[in-house]
Design goal:
The complex is a heterodimer. Chain A is mainly alpha-helical. Helices cover 70% and strands 0% of the residues of chain A. Chain A contains 6 helices and no strands. In chain A, α1 crosses α5. Chain B folds into 2 domains: 144 residues, Ubiquitin-like (UB roll); 133 residues, Alpha-helical ferredoxin (Fumarate Reductase Iron-sulfur Protein, Chain B, domain 2). In chain B, the strands form 2 sheets. Chain B has a 6-stranded mixed sheet with strand order 1-3-2-6-4-5. A two-stranded antiparallel sheet of chain B has the order 7-8. The chains are: A mainly alpha, B alpha+beta.
Chain lengths: 142, 290
């Protein structure tokens, strides 16, 4: 063989239409995992405002004027934040359900229906997300 | 369709002879305007149903083929025609330079794994009538292309040999004590599927972990190791030795259960299941509760 040809990234993301269930499950699992890590940092940032609030007097806290309460109330008043919360729920639920699916795969249970369990976790995620909308969207202007 | 088609043009261009039913940019350049008439002629000649295949072409040694391209062939359809049949027809009737590996034509030799319509399949086991046309036939991804549909399998074979794919026993007993090495029916059933591997390389090509990590053993090699590690006739020591190879960083633990290999295996071997079982074996071997 004098020379050969390397086609590089063939069959990678350019061919996403040809991916099968197991591949999509893997991609979604990685994606939701990174989203949850990202959320963890914003979560810490928001909760850290309670450090400032802890030195406030009881009266200020009872009047809900401390930095922690105002930060949370301010955030929860935003339509975008409510949308992101629904997204967060969807991401977390999928990650949990697919995690259970992977646990079964690791234990060698029902590997022949791994695609069905992926579709089931997608459907269940969708249903739970839709069902959560009324709860997340109360008292925000819609 | 008759095979006597030794027209003058075909003798002038030996590497791209008799282009009936074939459309190739390079051939068009070589044969000039004469191709148009020939196209009309061949279209009339190919009566009945035809299949349209697009075949990947590349040859570093032929000028005009150094830049990879797809050639179109229209092959007369026959009931029961496989992808391999169609490329063989294209080679025999249209372009004798079309190169691919094949041997037994009955899914035993494992030579003709191609990337057909975006999936690794065995050419001889894939009915062309099941596929959407035009059927895109490419060499296996993640392996370097030597010529047309022929890929370099060296790395695949290296990985297969890493797991010592042969039966081993501690010591060969003295000649007088030699006897049949019997396997229980249950044990035979356990390794039955893993023993079906034909070394076609479809799984390795479909695995995108193997594509990014050249040290990863890959599904075929791990399955081969499974066949022997699970075989009761091999001694405990040999099994431990096998697990020591498998439990390394680039062994079973690289598998991320995407199921791509199981999806494409032409012999329906539950590769992911076997890899997962070996992962559990490796954990059990190393887990200590004291």
């Amino acid at each position: 063989m004098s020379q050969s040809y390397n086609r590089g990234l063939i069959e990678d993301f350019g061919r996403w239409k040809e991916f099968s269930a197991g591949m999509w499950a893997w991609i979604f699992h990685k994606f939701t995992g990174w989203m949850l890590i990202g959320y963890l940092f914003t979560h810490i940032a928001v909760l850290s405002t309670s450090i400032g609030a802890s030195s406030e007097s009881t009266a200020v806290i009872q009047a809900e004027n401390d930095v922690y309460t105002t930060t949370l109330q301010g955030l929860e008043g935003l339509f975008l934040i409510r949308l992101l919360e629904i997204g967060l729920l969807a991401v977390a639920v999928f990650h949990i359900l697919n995690g259970l699916r992977l646990l079964m795969v690791d234990l060698g249970i029902g590997l022949e229906s791994q695609d069905k369990s992926f579709y089931a976790s997608l459907l269940l995620t969708g249903a739970i997300t839709v069902a959560s909308v009324p709860t997340f969207m109360t008292e925000v202007g819609i | 369709m008759s095979t006597q088609q030794a027209e003058p043009e075909s003798q002038e261009a030996p590497e791209d002879p008799a282009m009936k039913g074939a459309e190739s940019p390079a051939a068009d350049e070589q044969n000039g305007g004469g191709m148009v008439d020939e196209h009309a002629e061949k279209a009339a000649e190919l009566e009945g149903e035809t299949v349209h295949i697009k075949v990947f072409r590349y040859d570093p040694e032929v000028e005009g083929k150094q830049e990879p391209r797809f050639d179109d062939f229209h092959v007369p359809f026959e009931k029961g025609m496989t992808v391999l049949d169609s490329v063989m027809y294209a080679r025999d009737e249209y372009d004798s330079s079309l190169t691919f590996r094949h041997s037994c034509r009955q899914a035993v030799c494992g030579s003709d794994a191609f990337f057909v319509n975006g999936k690794q399949r065995l050419g001889c086991k894939t009915q062309i009538s099941d596929l959407e046309q035009p059927v895109r036939i490419e060499p296996l991804p993640h392996q370097e292309v030597v010529k047309d549909l022929v890929v370099d399998m060296d790395h695949f074979y290296d990985q297969m040999h890493t797991v010592e794919p042969y039966f081993q026993d501690e010591d060969t007993p003295p000649v007088d004590d030699l006897e049949e090495q019997r396997q229980s029916q249950e044990n035979r059933e356990k390794i039955k599927m893993s023993s079906r591997c034909i070394w076609c390389g479809a799984c390795m090509s479909s695995c995108n972990i193997a594509a990014g990590d050249n040290e990863y053993l890959g599904p075929a090699a791990i399955n081969k190791a499974y066949k022997f590690a699970m075989d009761d006739r091999e001694g405990e020591e040999i099994k431990e030795h096998r697990l020591r190879i498998l439990e390394q960083e680039h062994g079973v633990w690289r598998c991320q259960t995407q199921f791509s290999c199981t999806e494409v295996c032409p012999k329906d071997i539950p590769l992911t299941e076997h890899i997962q079982e070996l992962k559990r074996e490796a954990v059990k071997k190393n887990l200590k509760f004291w």
